[in-house]
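**Archive record**
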Amino acid sequence: MSNVLPIITPESFDMAAYMRESEPKVKVLSPLAWRDALVQSTRAGESSELTGARLPWAKTHDMIRFRGGEMSLWQGMNGHGKSQLVGQVMTGFSAQDEPSCIASFEMKPLANLKRMLRQVAMTATPSESAADRFVKWLDKRMWFYDQMGSVRPEMVYAVIRYCAEQLRVKHFMVDSLMKCVQGEDDYNGQKAFVDQLTSLARDYNIHIHLVHHVRKSENEDRPPGKYDAKGTGAIADLVDNFLTVWRNKPKERAVEIELRKNNCVSEDTAAKPDSMIICDKQRHGDWEGRINLWFNRPSLQYTGDRSGRPLEMIGDLL
């Protein structure tokens, strides 16, 4: 098994072949095309069964899933950990045999890998052997597209097509929207880009995860909603899932004050979550609401309960 990191660059594949739009697919079909799926849906328990990739936290498994043909938007304020959290989610998908590709135009692949290594090793100081085992484990499970800064939308579309067709990727993360359009006021460009991503997700039966920023606010104490996203409001209409990552700054201030005053943190303060995932839209599910998470700083992991014990995501790498 190769020890070379699974990196994709514009030079590593036939870009021109994937820059071209594919031939229009036949969209007018007889209901017989859906016969087997419809019959299957009537079987006992099928109608209520959740399908799709799960988030890393067991308590969320009956709330939301991530299926092929759909798209999720993950928004958050600067410094609230959205890219770090979604990176943990991508690792969790890979552990479910759902290969992923990360196209981060704000962070180099090695920086992402260092962060993920701490998460899977569950420590701030992973060993050399843990790093080696992690890279070997990632083979065929995760890829990275290596390009920093602004990128043309056509290039993003090409990489997605390549990953879906040749690498059989099931999840593709784009970080972030504003690196793929002309600017915050390019509403037409934003709508066209997100619209095309939803089409690619549907046509190639993959799930696309788009990281996005919220408008600047003087009040970080209030979790933003879907109307706080930068740019056009059409984005919220186009995606299947609209998720916000919020860091509990009020709790952080309370912890600091209590530690200075009493050298300990009260039960009430400790019980409050460190972060939240807020689901304001789930087109193909009934649940909307908040997922409380706690942050384990040494491992950079988000955990599902206040104990803060990191999850064993892919096995023991220590």
Notes: The mean pLDDT is 91. Residues 187-204 form the longest helix (18 residues).
